[in-house]
Amino acid sequence: MRRAALIAVPYVWLLALFLIPFVIVFKISLSDIALAIPPYTPTMKDGFWTMVQGLDFENFVFLTEDDLYWKAYVSSLQIAFFSTLLTLLVGYPMAYAMARAPEEWRPTLMMLVILPFWTSFLIRVYAWIGILSSEGFLNQFLLWLGLIDSPLTVLNTNTAVYIGIVYTYLPFMILPIYAALDRLDGSLIEAAEDLGCSRLQAFWLVTIPLSKNGIIAGCFLVFIPALGEFVIPSLLGGSGTLMIGKVLFEEFFSNRDWPVASAVAVILLLILIIPIILFQRNEQRNAEAEG
Amino acid sequence: MPETIFAPWDSPEETPLIRFQNVTKRFGDFVAIDDLTLDIFEREFFALLGPSGCGKTTMMRMLAGFEDPTEGTITVAGQDMAQVPANKRAVNMMFQSYALFPHLSVWDNIAFGLRRETKDKAAISARVDEMLRLTRLEKFARRKPHQISGGQRQRVALARSLAKAPKLLLLDEPLGALDKKLRQETQFELMDIQEKTGTTFVIVTHDQEEAMTVASRVAVMDEGRVMQVATPEDIYEAPNSVYVADFIGDVNIISGTAAPDGDSRFAITWAADQPPILAKSDIGFNTGQSCHLAIRPEKVAIHAEQPEGKKNAVRGKVLDIAYLGNLSTYHVELPNGTIIKAQTANTRRIARRDFTWEDEVWLSWTTSAGVLLAQ
Amino acid sequence: MKHLLLGTAALALVAAAATAEEVRVYNWSDYIDEDLLTKFESETGIDLIYDVFDSNEVLETKMLAGSSGYDVVVPSGTFLQRQIAAGAFQKLDKSKLSNAGNMWDVIDARVGKYDPGNEYSINYMWGSTGLGVNVDKVKAALGDDAPIGSLELIFNPANMEKLQGCGVHFLDAPTELIPAALAYLGEDPDAQDADTIKKAEPVLTAIAPYVQKFHSSEYINALANGDICVAVGWSGDVLQARDRAAEAENGVNIEYYAPSEGALMWFDQMAIPADAPNPEAAHKFLNFIMDAQNMAQASNYVYYANGNLASQEFLEEDVIGDTAIYPDAATLENLYTTSPYDAKTQRVVTRMWTKIKSGT
């Protein structure tokens, strides 16, 4: 009896925090836009049965008719994918250096990684505007060095979006990889060298596979929020930066078309569910392997 | 053809496989290895024995290539190892933690080293299967390291380090993680495998029993120096110092001053109101030179009455009795406070034993029972 | 027993807080002299809770979601009209607005397009959407005969190509730029049919590559600092940029022009949500704002014209005398108003705007 209750708790949690909101959004996505409060029809006010009869998949059909939407999804997937890759390329060496650093330095290094979280995310993204703008620190520094003659246009381009995402989500990449590398037994590397591996081979054949779980966790932690990212592309991106988060915002606020906005969100969720399930599986397998 | 005793260290025409020549290793101010010279011969099962921090692991890591000597040279088969990195040495190591790759199966762990030197899949497969047979692991080939027992993991580690048929196998406390019974079985298995493969083994251990059981020769180390290198029998019977005598097994040390007393015999004055002890020794002592007599407890006899015609006999009181089942060790206090241990085999039932606490007893030993040491 | 007493005391406090009258106002950011807020509190004894927003879309989303909890909100004309249709507002009780006689009939008549008979709202401020120009830089780029006061400046690609170097910002507001493009073409800026609206697309697409940024507030600083030389923006904001540059004495000389082809006139209207918790206090707040001196104080502070005729005698000379704020009769005649698009047209407009900005 108590066992059943214990098992029920996470499911109730899931139901309350995920399933019920999803059902509401899904229901709105099947409704029609209306000039009313709330701005869609039908609602429960019309009676449950009338409401159910009034629902249809029109909005989803609409999403397939305008190429804007799938272009935005593809562009978001692309930006999320490459920024995850970049974050991995930047984050892995940092995590590796942290794990190899003398024991007494590690809490400090860890602190430095976490430190940016003490400042509002919005302020940190605004700070990048100051760095990347044509009169910004980066350009002034490069001009001062004499590397460039005229200011580079970085702000309001996709490059700035990549920089913003990599910067913002870097700790989410570093921490799981660091955790994996920290647990790595140094004698495994020596064993690999003893058995004939060069340093690089040992890294590739032992360190990378053994930090694989950290890499996977880090990539998901970056990829999933980056896919739906709105703030970074709208502050650092240019008018040409097409991301589904921005499209969602426009549907909701500019077109005040809640049903289409909900349909966009439902599709986004479906796209995200695949990596989330893969991530869960991976975590579960780890838990089993370690148990 | 008569069977010859394996003792290449005694024949001057043999060249050693491994030579440490005046090797010193420092970590900052700490001297881990202090001007050490040592030869190890091919097919030897050589044990480095000592307490933790004596430098035995550092020596092993220098052989493997994980540390470089600060001074001196190490040669293996005549080649100076100074410029040879770990992955280019025909030396393999079995790690104390086994260091099995957790992401690879038993089979792939054993194949790991082979894959680095050849692409021939059939050859790798044949060699891995051979190693699996040798270590009786055929049934576990597809398992991951976390799916097998500690003893099996130990054998995987051994199989993996032997797979490349190294000239020299290093074993770092190979049995330390096993329980006592399994350890004893595995010791014999190790000796068996060493004999079958003909590989030179160097084992690091702090367990003197283990070293004595498996090794052809033992190097007893202390604070970065080798105290004595000898066969297990010689180490036990003829230690060259109080340190070695004390480190290996149980021993009574009686300190005093020596005086020559006939042919290779010395009289040791050790207590004011006691007659001197007589002991034979091949090394000479001057009159008045301080000396230490080391006698193993099993070489000390215990009597109820003063024994007749014994050269060395002292009287004391039973202070303590350690009953070990097959043996009993009596701790006997002499009038001057010295405690001497005497060991007897329990051939009789416990109720019929002769001595009990507080009994007055006599202890005796022959003149050749002990070893007379200068230091 | 003691705990119980304390508990009762706490309950009493909560009850007292609930009965103290309060009014919640939701207005645009930087849009009032804050002294007026304290003045209202001391005159009426009502607690004023003042919140700000920075886009009509944010306000509208709150209104359409319902139960916003605000007593007074300030949507712009087209948004107001749509929200009235959605049933978001309650009719004003004119008997509680004793200062109604102060209002300016000219403005009331124009607002009537969105709120016929001014039944739901009163005008707070109004202005136009036009050109903020760094005169010296534009003349340097285009020569002394540059069409500074004309839409030719921003919709002729040849001009824009030359201005690209010194920087041009556009409002990120399709409902203001599309009518402007239509006005440039000589079409009705208030056109509601998709075919006419689509005529604006090639005009905007042709110049979009030369626009550094589509944004609705960054241009104030950018103009004032001299980072850009032209901005399509709101009158009051451009004037703010002009004053900031003047204060900084950085040699940047900004002027505002309502384009000669016609400029969009907009109205920010105060209205009371249908579900306002305290409509009584809301009416008191509206009446307070409609007071001639109070309204003048607000305009003197924010540099926008208001719809209160009686307030004009209290306006400072640099407000009432500035044609950029209070245009002359001829210019006023030249200002046009637009109606809200229906949902379908709105989608066409938004989609077109996305396409223009991103080329997708």
Keywords:
heterotrimer; A: 291 residues; MetI-like fold; 2 domains; 75% helix; globular; C: 360 residues; D-Maltodextrin-Binding Protein, domain 2; 18 helices; 16% strand
Share in helix of chain A: over 70%
Largest interface (CB within 8 Å) is between: A-C, 26 and 32 residues
Give the averaged pLDDT of chain A, no decimals.
89
Number of helices of chain A: 14
CATH architecture of the largest domain in chain B: 3-Layer(aba) Sandwich
Sheet with most strands: strand arrangement of chain A? 1-2
CATH architecture of the largest domain in chain A: Orthogonal Bundle
* Tally of alpha and pi helices of chain B: 8
CATH superfamily of the largest domain in chain B: P-loop containing nucleotide triphosphate hydrolases
Structural class estimated from helices and strands of chain A: mainly alpha
Question: Over all CA atoms, what is the radius of gyration of chain A?
Answer: 24 Å
Order of helices and strands of chain A: HEEHHHHHHHHHHHHH
Q: Based on the structure, what is the oligomeric state of the protein chains? A: heterotrimer
Helicity level of chain B: 10-25%
CATH topology of the largest domain in chain A: MetI-like fold
Radius of gyration of chain B: 25 Å
- Class by alpha and beta content of chain B: alpha+beta
Query: Which ranges of chain B are low-confidence, i.e. pLDDT below 50, for 5 or more consecutive residues?
Result: none
The CATH topology name of the largest domain in chain B reads Rossmann fold
Q: What is the straight-line distance between the termini of chain A?
A: 26 Å
